Amino acid sequence: MVSTLLVRASESERLARFATNNRVARLISRPFIAGSTVAEGIAAARDLVAAGRTVSLDLVGEHVTSETEADRATDGYEATIAAMAEAELRSGVSIKPSQLGTELDVDRARARLTRLAEEAGAADLHVTLDMEDSSTTETTVKLVEALHGDGHTHVGCALQTALHRTPDDVERLNELGASVRLCKGAYAESARIAHQHRGAVDDAFQRCATALLERGTYPRFATHDHQIIGHVRREARRLGRTTDGYEFQMLYGVRTDVQQRLVEIGEHLCIYVPFGEAWYAYFMRRLAERPTNVLFFLRALTG
Ligand SMILES: Cc1cc2nc3c(=O)[nH]c(=O)nc-3n(C[C@H](O)[C@H](O)[C@H](O)COP(=O)(O)OP(=O)(O)OC[C@H]3O[C@@H](n4cnc5c(N)ncnc54)[C@H](O)[C@@H]3O)c2cc1C
What we know:
Layout: H1 2-9, H2 13-20, H3 23-29, H4 38-50, E1 54-59, H5 67-86, E2 92-95, H6 106-122, E3 126-129, H7 137-149, E4 155-160, H8 166-176, E5 180-183, H9 198-215, E6 220-222, H10 226-238, E7 247-251, H11 256-264, E8 269-275, H12 280-289, H13 294-302
Parallel strand pairs: 1-2, 1-8, 2-3, 3-4, 4-5, 5-6, 6-7, 7-8
This protein binds flavin-adenine dinucleotide.
Residues 130-131, 158, 160, 183-187, 222-225, 249-251, 254-255, 272, 286, 289-290 line the site of flavin-adenine dinucleotide.
């Protein structure tokens, strides 16, 4: 219930404006957001790489409402990719399709993504399309198919095990040879579209993880759930996948103890590093995953 309210609040423009202009709110978001500028994102990435992780940089933003905004986001990603190349960070970037304007004009968004895929490819960076709410799933999977058709095989996307359709999407992307980031899903969805109970989402994660380890291209398991992490590691061993054939992914600032442990036992770990001005929606989704933080945040906002 609280989680659903928070996910809804993440979509409020009025609250976004209020929080973004609130100094205390910015401060509180800091453990989850690496900073506002490309330089700050790169600095955080360098520290993580020095500590044995790889990174996927996310210039936060979504649901742009004009082509100008979509162009600005694309320019921001270009600058990010150039800075990663200069810093010799051979990891990846995470991009929200709606940030490139898929809700305005899919063809123009695809052209922007192609431009970024070319530059990322030249810099030896993987591109993951984040998965947004279920109204965007088909468009996102089709974008990956289109980019692969053009030879950009370093482009993949996230899939959410909350959705009933995901086992089919896993097979679709396995056949294509696209790298999938598997996650539980951070959006509130109806029962028609998605599992409503955590147990069902977790079971689906385990089944999809096995399918990816059996037939997928370098699967990326995005979770902080130690039971699922254990399942993935056992299945990888059973299926003969070495640790070079898949990775775990976690969010910047979340479960850093588990992050450290995974690196110590020799697993590949990629940290999703969000940075930029438009941090509000991202941050609210993180609160929704951990409602105990909410009172602290609200008290700080109003106090
Ligand atoms: C790298 C990465 C990329 C992602 N990309 C997407 C995407 O493209 N689309 C999408 O819908 N979702 C995405 N997510 C979010 C994901 O769908 C889940 O909402 C989120 O990861 C929580 O699920 P969990 O697997 O960690 O399991 P949970 O059962 O939710 O959490 C397991 C444990 O991790 C800890 N934990 C989890 N989240 C938090 C938090 N925010 N703050 C503090 N502790 C926490 C808690 O201790 C919790 O008990 C991504 C997650 C990761 C890690």
